[in-house]
Specification:
Layout: E1 2-5, H1 11-23, E2 26-32, E3 37-43, H2 51-58, E4 63-67, E5 78-80, E6 83-85, E7 91-95, H3 102-114, E8 119-121, H4 139-152, E9 156-159, H5 166-172, E10 175-178, H6 186-194, E11 199-202, H7 209-221, E12 227-231, H8 249-256, E13 261-263, H9 265-269, H10 272-285, E14 289-293, H11 311-324
Parallel strand pairs: 7-8, 7-14, 8-9, 9-10, 10-11, 11-12, 12-13, 13-14
Antiparallel strand pairs: 1-3, 1-4, 2-3, 5-6
Helix pairs in contact: 3-4, 6-7, 10-11
The structure holds phosphoenolpyruvate (PEP) and manganese (II) ion (MN).
Phosphoenolpyruvate (PEP) is lined by residues 97, 123, 127, 159, 179-181, 202, 232, 264, 267.
Length: 356
């Protein structure tokens, strides 16, 4: 957490902030830029921050802003398998909403790999609104994803639904997904913080940006620094789309946090015809990646068929994203190799809207 002091704060203001932090066991490292004093706050025992505590600090005299999650001048790079997220790159995650069978998953995995996807998605544990809908293949689904990874070389992202499955999911996944419905499941957040794999944290469908970043802080302050945020649409009143894709969240989050932010236009819109335009808009808005549902037989899909692109449509979308990326100062490698950011000469290192 960072506390940004107002330009005109007094010495007494600063003293009071430091005293309040110290009284609750927080240490502050003070750094000064030309016009700002920023306090980098760490708990001596790495305990998570409570919302009440953040509010208390925000209300102190001389405090301009309390910034949740990590803020740095350069975006964080997060490695998923051999793919790097963040810091001027654009990656594409694609695959079926749910792992339905070995044959279905392998067909789609090969199709998205051929089109240039960087990571394979697929749910083995599915959070369904109705208990009567397909709930996923569970551990058998994880084994199918493992096979797809071996055949294609693509790293895997898959969702974990509950604390008791964290161990098995983290054994198989390269990136562990926390779904929108679990964004505020703090017990689960603390549990994924304890394991080593990077975490993809979806925004809750009714969560504010601050609540989303607070949820990320549970994982960061719990000991896992590798968090990727995913905007997936929020509740709204219109019937034409499933959720409202909040594209403004992308530059807002980038101005507040160093964590890469990605977009899922499939779950946001629920409509195949909207995925390509929304994916292109996500790249333009500064997202580090998009996550796209792809299915070769969407009419037979056991989950979310109407929001899956056909493989040929996905390949066309990939072509247009590859054409756009350089104009947006973004590297979209054929395969996102391990290139440290310092090697990407000439690409923007400063998040859009970053003002510290
Ligand atoms: C998913 O990505 O499979 C999913 C269930 O998404 P969300 O949690 O955003 O609804
Ligand atoms: Mn889905």
């Amino acid at each position: 957490m960072f506390v940004v002091m107002k330009p005109n704060h007094s010495a007494t203001d600063l003293k009071q902030v430091l005293k309040t932090l110290a009284a609750s066991g927080f240490e502050a490292r003070i750094s000064a830029t030309d016009d700002k004093i920023i306090l980098n706050i760490e708990a001596a025992d790495a305990k998570p921050l409570s919302g009440m505590f953040v509010q208390k600090i925000s209300a102190l005299s001389g405090v301009q802003d309390v910034v949740l999650a990590e803020r740095k001048a350069v975006e964080k790079e997060i490695q998923v398998g051999n793919v790097i997220f963040g810091a001027g790159r654009f990656a594409v995650i694609a695959g079926p909403c749910a792992v339905e069978s070995e044959a279905q998953t392998l067909r789609i995995a090969h199709a998205v790999k051929a089109a240039g996807a960087h990571v394979l998605r697929g749910g083995a544990f599915k959070p369904r609104t109705s208990p009567h809908s397909f709930q996923g293949l569970g551990p058998d689904g994880l084994k199918i994803l493992d096979l797809a990874r071996q055949e294609t070389g693509l790293p895997i992202v898959t969702e974990v639904l509950d604390v008791r499955s964290v161990e098995v999911v983290s054994q198989f996944a390269d990136l562990i997904q926390i779904g929108a419905r679990n964004m505020q499941n703090y017990t689960l957040l603390k549990e994924v913080a304890r394991q080593k794999k990077p975490v993809l944290l979806k925004r809750g469908m009714s969560a504010t940006i601050d609540e989303w970043l607070m949820a990320a802080d549970y994982i960061l302050s719990g000991g896992n620094e590798n968090v990727i945020l995913c905007e997936r649409g929020i509740r709204h009143f219109d019937k034409h789309t499933r959720f409202l894709l909040d594209l403004s969240a992308v530059p807002v989050v980038r101005s507040m946090s160093a964590l890469p932010v990605i977009v899922d236009p499939s779950h946001a819109s629920g409509r195949r015809d909207l995925i390509a335009p929304l994916a292109r808009a996500s790249l333009a808005a500064g997202a580090s990646a998009v996550m796209i549902d792809v299915h070769d037989r969407p009419h037979e899909a056991l989950c979310d068929g109407p929001q899956a692109l056909l493989p040929a449509e996905f390949a066309l979308l990939m072509e247009s994203l590859r054409a756009m990326a350089p104009a947006l100062n973004c590297v979209m490698d054929a395969e996102n190799e391990l290139r440290p950011f310092s090697a990407l000469q000439g690409f923007a290192s400063t998040p859009v809207g970053y003002q510290a």
